[in-house]
Amino acid sequence: MGKIAVSGLVVAVGLGVVGLLLIILSAKKLNSYELGIKYDNIAKTLGNYVNREGLHFGPPGFSFIIFPSVYKTMEFKDISCLNKDGVVIDVDVSYQFKANPLHMKFLVDQFQSFDGYKKVLFASGKSAVHDSCANFSTTEFQTDRGKFQERLRETMRNYCEYLHCELNDLQVNSVQRPLQFESAVKDKEAAKENIRVAENERPRLLLQAETELEQAKKQAEIIFNNAQTQAKIIKMKAETEAESLRYQYEKDLEVYKKVKESQGLDNEALISYMTIRAISESKNDINLALKSPAKTSYSSITD
């Protein structure tokens, strides 16, 4: 009887341990940021319901195929695409997404896991980038970058809706154009800036040139007026001196004429007389070989 009791106790304990193990193997926990569908690893069957956070029970050894319940970020680094001009553009894009819980069983049937789902999303996202890039010219990527981002967001949302993905927001982090084009754009902008500076400087330079021209005109006018004044002064001085000499010559002529007439001298005698007068009035000794001068009386000269 004792042996039977011991055997029963062992069996009971064994069943309890097995039951406990089954309970442990049949319980799985989901975190607050997870959604899961049960998968029976033994029967190879997929559950029909989406489970949220908490402790869940299922067939022994089952597992959850888990999808995030919060938005995740998908990044597209340095994707090269051809724009409307046929120029290669490198873009860096990211967006936030999560799978639609209402279609989670369908997504698991199609893509097996969240990793498989992300691969398809990434491929469709690249297609959306290429489609959007082809609608913009090289210049529009510079001037209408916001418009490109809106177009890409709308295209990406259409792709996501087809794949039962909820897109929250999208960011275009960078747009890189070819180096030669960037250099040409910089040169063009530099030329525009130089033109703008020149246009701004033009009024000042014109005013400066006009001021210098007016100053030069005034200086030339001053020089011209001074020259005219000096010329008038020189002319008046010359005229005065000429008049003075003319008057002096007339007086001398009258005296010599009077002497010639009063003394009955001819021209030669008059010249001799004038020479003697010049010599006599000179303070220095003078040696000349002349004919005897005409003889005149003192009274005839002074009359």
Architecture overview:
With 303 residues, the chain is an alpha+beta fold. The chain folds into three domains: 24-70, no CATH class; 73-183, Band 7 domain (Tetrahydropterin Synthase, Chain A); 245-302, no CATH class. Helix content is 60%, strand content 19%. It has eight helices and eight strands; from the N terminus they run H-E-E-E-E-E-E-E-H-H-H-H-E-H-H-H. The strands form three sheets. A three-stranded antiparallel beta sheet has the order 3-2-5, covered by helices on one side. The chain has a three-stranded antiparallel beta sheet with strand order 6-7-8, with helices on one face. Strands 1-4 form a two-stranded antiparallel sheet. Strand 6 and strand 7 (88-99) form a beta hairpin. Helix 3 (114-133) packs antiparallel against helix 5 (145-162). Mean pLDDT is 81; it is low at 298-303. The chain crosses the membrane at residues 6-25. It comes from Brachionus calyciflorus. Residues 31-219 form the Band domain. Belongs to the prohibitin family.
Summarize the structure.
The protein has 303 residues and is α+β, with helices and mostly antiparallel strands.
The largest β sheet comes out as: 3 strands, antiparallel
How many β-strand stretches? 8
Mean pLDDT rating: 81
Write down the secondary-structure element order.
HEEEEEEEHHHHEHHH
As a percent range, the share of strand residues is 15-25%
State the CATH superfamily name of the largest domain: Band 7 domain
In the CATH hierarchy, the architecture of the largest domain is 2-Layer Sandwich
Task: Provide the domain count.
Answer: 3
CATH hierarchy, class of the largest domain: Alpha Beta
Note poorly predicted spans.
298-303
Protein name: Prohibitin
Family: Belongs to the prohibitin family.
Keywords: Coiled coil, Membrane, Mitochondrion, Mitochondrion inner membrane, Transmembrane, Transmembrane helix
Coiled coil: 181-226
